[in-house]
Amino acid sequence: MNWADACLGIAVASVAVTAIVSFGLTCWFFTKICCYPRQLLPDENLPRGKVILCLRGADPFLPECLDGISRQDYDNFQLAIVIDHHDDSSYPAVQQWLDRNPAWSNNVSVEFLSEILPNCTLKCSSILQVVNNLEPEFDFVAIIDADVGAHPQWLRQLATGLFRKKSIGAVSGNRWFVPQKTNTGSIVRATWIACSIVQMVCYRIAWGGSLAIKSETIREANLAEHWSKGFCEDTMLYSKLKQIGQTVEFQPRVLMVNRESCSLKDFANWMSRQLLCSKLHHPAWPLVFAYGMLFPITLVCQLGWLGFEDISQPYTLLLLWVFAISLVLLMINLPLISLATRIAIGDRLPRLGTIEILIRQFKTAATLPILGIVYVRGLFKTMFLRTVSWRGIEYTIEKSNVTLNEYRQYKPQSSEAEQSTTSII
After folding, report:
1. What's the rounded Cα separation, in Å, for the pair 27 and 325?
2. What total of structural domains would you count in the chain?
């Protein structure tokens, strides 16, 4: 066997491993969604919950988020809104919503961030402001992001999954992007989420945009202390809950549709932050990194194979057949994942015309090489990331330590930023 065959063999092996693992996990994900219990808690058994909404800047879908919370078929909860600053642009939107919904005045608390902790993000500081003053009457805490439009059964489904077993300490959904615009950045982001959602469920990586945690779990796992030194509130839950014999459960019925659009640059920066959360707070980071690196290994070996002329024909033909079958398996993954999410989300997915669906599918296929390049770049960037910007605040990362460099009130860079269709900056 010559060098050309060796390069091809490594490339084929990389693709084959990726295809088999990906297809197996996708089938498992599909089965998990289809077989997840559908029975919900009855009204008389609903635990009391505190829903936390942290705001910094006026997210484009904030009004829809507030309207979704007000339409919950769940009476036994209170909403706590923590706004970053008195002059924050989200405050007028909250006031307008309260004016339209006067019946909620006794069930909503609006407060401003009073203590900015130096070794965690502003979101963690906001969550801690509520959690540290949580009354004993509340059985669980739910966290929702401002870009999430909650459907009427959102909180009931979270509570049902959370109290289904004693060993479950936290329940999380995930996001599913159906962007309004089909520009490159939006399509690449939607495809990346579709590919990564299976890994997140497999590794039990929670998502703080649609999350519920038992109050007793917060106390037993000392989460307040960990959040005060963390970059995020969600990704660390798996390891911290495991220490007290509990786990994070995925609830497919709280997969949330996101209609935001973004540029490719905004997506790349946002993705690096997501990967950083895994690197800092989740034990599966080496697996995430290794899986992502299969793409460049395959590419380099393919280029090496093409550089040789003395290729062993019988051996090459066999490897090419394996390569082709592996690619077919990989191509099946995205449609299977999309079908599974459609089963979970149901009629909450926006209806698209046939032509629009075909255009989106074509753009998805065309941007796959771009996604591969951006993803690999993001993996390497995350390995050496020392400074990260989030909502206008810079944080310094040293090993697993987080330092907020300087607090500034959030101000969009231009009038166009105020009308942005994304909340990921």
Report:
1. 17
2. 1
Q: What is the DSSP letter of 334?
A: H
Residues 95-140 pLDDT 10s:
999 999 888 888 999 999 999 999 999 999 999 999 999 999 999 9
| Rg (alpha carbons) of the chain, rounded to whole number | 23
Residue range 338-394, pLDDT digits in tens: 889 888 888 777 777 778 878 888 888 888 888 888 998 999 999 999 999 999 999
Which neighbouring-strand residues pair with 140? 49, 214
What is the Cα–Cα distance from 28 to 336, expressed in whole angstroms?
11
Contact 260, 424 (CB under 8 A): yes
Question: What type of residue sits at position 379?
Answer: L
SS3 of residue 49 by DSSP:
strand
Domain boundaries, position 101: 39-275
Residue 109 belongs to a domain: yes
pLDDT > 70 in the chain, percent: 85
Provide the 3-class DSSP secondary structure of residue 345.
helix
Identify whether 161 is part of a domain. yes
Instruction: For residue 71, count other CB atoms closer than 10 A to its CB.
Output: 14
The CA distances from residue 109 to 24, 74, 214, in Å, are 46, 17, 20
Question: What would the mean pLDDT of 196-223 be, rounded to a whole number?
Answer: 95
Is 299 within a domain? no
Spatial CA neighbour of 251 closest among 196, 185, 312, 174: 174
pTM given for the model? 0.90
Q: Where are the beta strands (DSSP E) in 85-158?
A: 108-112, 140-144
Q: How far apart are the C-alpha atoms of 85 and 126, rounded to whole Å?
A: 11
| 325 within domain boundaries | no
**CATH number of residue 201's parent domain:** 3.90.550.10
